[in-house]
Design brief:
single chain; alpha/beta; 2 domains; nine-stranded mixed sheet; seven-stranded mixed sheet; 13 helices; binds flavin-adenine dinucleotide; oxidoreductase; Flavin_amine_oxidase; FAD; signal; Amine oxidase
Length: 511
């Protein structure tokens, strides 16, 4: 069906709900609509497939010459669920679709430095002890609405104070913190960083399963989609890059780079925080200040897996993880994972190493050859008694510059508030937002994207049917999500006195 768009008289395809982005959140939103027999929607997706940041690629060679499949994006099902307790929906889907995955055993770890194997695993226990103290403190801060602090401050108060030149402690800290959050403890909120891991690993369970399915992790997304979309469903517009979203009180018009447009009653934007921060998509009118501020407030991390295949497994066969402490640089090729370990893809001779944040940006900027030289030098330090050959395959993605993601997943810096996040999450009139980053409880995780997509779909259904479907709010304000026009710090102006260490006026005029 084609209708006349209200604004400029151009002909746009007309639909009720335009779902922008076909990752986990977009598919979840579409499913929520379909489940309620609302079939008039389109999904507009940049890439040539559904799945978004759940993204695999061919790598290396099997003995028969076919390539292996490795995951560039999401890799674990994080927090499975416990009997009688809530279950992570991603785990439910994995069981439903028979996804191949294996329990990640974080105790299956050997520790190294530049001289080779060096056992510093006792420092792992020491960190965990101190972290538990910091986590308890985070709970008190959250409950009492005290001032947030960085994870660094929280750890330090709990007695974890690694010296800058204590590289084994730095490596342990990286493995325990940066590896999950893709940011250093200095860059993370104690309250929300702790709450995030608590809500996933203490609510569901502390198990993480690593997905090595050769059909790809996105199989669960495409399989779920196939329950309500037909093959080549005309409502799915692949290879279509949205460039502009115009909205009024009566509808939303979406323009794409190929000149096509869609006019809808509602839109759900599921683009990553990185995409929203990059201005790759413009809004007309410009998003209100409260929304722009919230988009700028949160951070988009980068998590880069560097894959190597060799003609033999020269590292210990039965171990899943190898932690390397560089003598000079924190976060320099620290965590190595063997895919050759039992239960994964034995005989694959594939190992990969992960870097995040500045080290990820650094490897993104350099050539594959340079990076390969660096990682081989590290492997030769770790395994001085092995002959480390040239890899037969080598590859890594560049997430921070991928125009459909601009990073890996979101994070909360210290000193933000739930209200600020709600502003990131809230709809702007008929434009709704959903995805990993709009989840306060599960940001950074695939299940966060799922819950948020479902929620946005259900909220819009409520609006379409004039029913109060707002499961997150009270009956008084169902419909629109709450947002805050003004956000306040925790210190009212009256507090800015000498009694709070504020000795001079905050206000000087330039004249
Ligand atoms: C390296 C990495 C490792 C991760 N590891 C894990 C993990 O182990 N476990 C876990 O639970 N989570 C992990 N995650 C996070 C998880 O992948 C995300 O939370 C989830 O996939 C996000 O889904 P989404 O629908 O919110 O966003 P996306 O998957 O980003 O979906 C948004 C869609 O919008 C499309 N799009 C973007 N711009 C445009 C445009 N202009 N026009 C049209 N379409 C556009 C994109 O192509 C994409 O398909 C990881 C992510 C990365 C990148």
């Amino acid at each position: 069906a084609v209708s006349k768009a209200r604004d400029d008289g151009e002909m746009c395809k007309k639909t009720t709900v335009a779902i922008l982005g076909g990752g986990m959140a977009g598919v979840a939103a579409a499913q929520a609509l379909s489940n309620a027999s609302m079939h008039d929607f389109v999904i507009i997706e940049y890439q040539d497939q559904l799945g978004g940041r759940v993204h695999h690629t061919d790598f290396g060679k099997k003995p028969n010459g076919d390539p292996y499949t490795v995951e560039l994006g999401a890799n674990w099902i994080q927090g499975l669920g416990s009997p009688g307790g809530p279950e992570n929906p991603v785990w439910t889907f994995s069981k439903k679709w028979g996804l191949n995955n294996t329990y990640s055993n974080y105790s299956s770890i050997l520790t190294y430095n530049e001289t080779g194997y060096t056992d510093y695993s006792s420092i792992l226990d020491e960190y965990e002890d101190k972290y538990n103290t910091a986590a308890e403190q985070a709970g008190i801060i959250l409950k009492e609405n005290y001032q947030d602090m960085t994870v660094r401050s929280g750890l330090s108060l709990a007695g974890w104070k690694p010296k800058r030149d204590d590289m084994t402690a730095q490596a342990v800290e990286w493995w325990e913190w940066d590896w999950e959050d893709a940011y250093s403890p200095e860059q993370c909120s104690l309250v929300f960083g702790t709450a995030g891991s608590n809500l996933t690993f203490n609510q569901f369970s502390d198990e993480n399963n690593y997905v090595w399915d050769q059909r790809g992790y996105s199989r669960i997304i495409t399989s779920e989609a196939s329950t309500f979309l037909t093959k080549d469903d005309p409502r799915v517009h692949l290879n279509t890059r949205v460039t502009n979203i115009s909205y009024t009180d009566s509808g939303v018009t979406i323009h794409s780079s190929d000149g096509s447009c869609v006019s809808a009653a509602y839109a759900i934007v599921t683009f990553s925080l990185g995409v929203l921060q990059s201005d790759a998509v413009t809004f007309a009118p410009a998003l209100p200040d409260w929304k722009q501020t919230a988009i700028a407030k949160f951070s988009m991390g980068t998590y880069t897996k560097i894959f190597l295949q060799f003609n033999e497994t020269f590292w210990p066969h039965d171990t899943q993880y190898f932690l390397y402490a560089s003598p000079t640089t924190r976060g320099y090729y620290p965590v190595w994972q063997s895919l050759s370990a039992p239960g994964f893809i034995p005989e694959s001779n594939i190992i990969f190493v992960t870097v995040v944040a500045d080290q990820a940006y650094r490897v993104e900027r350099q050539s594959d050859e340079q990076t390969k030289t660096e990682v081989l030098a590290v492997l030769r330090e770790m395994f001085p008694n092995a002959t480390v050959p040239e890899p037969t395959a080598f590859m890594y993605p560049r997430w921070s510059t991928s125009p459909w993601a601009y990073g890996s997943y979101s994070n909360w810096p210290a000193a933000t508030t739930l209200e600020m996040h709600e502003n990131f999450r809230a709809n702007v009139g008929r434009v709704w937002f959903a995805g990993e980053a709009t989840s306060a409880q599960y940001f950074g995780f695939l299940h966060g994207a799922w819950f948020e997509g479902q929620n946005a779909g259900e909220q819009i259904l409520g609006l379409l049917r004039d029913e109060c479907a707002n499961i997150m709010s009270t009956a008084d304000d169902c419909g629109d999500l709450r947002h805050y026009e003004k956000l306040y710090g925790s210190s009212p102006l009256a507090d800015y006195t000498v009694f709070d260490g504020w000795e001079v006026s905050s206000f000087y005029s330039s004249s």
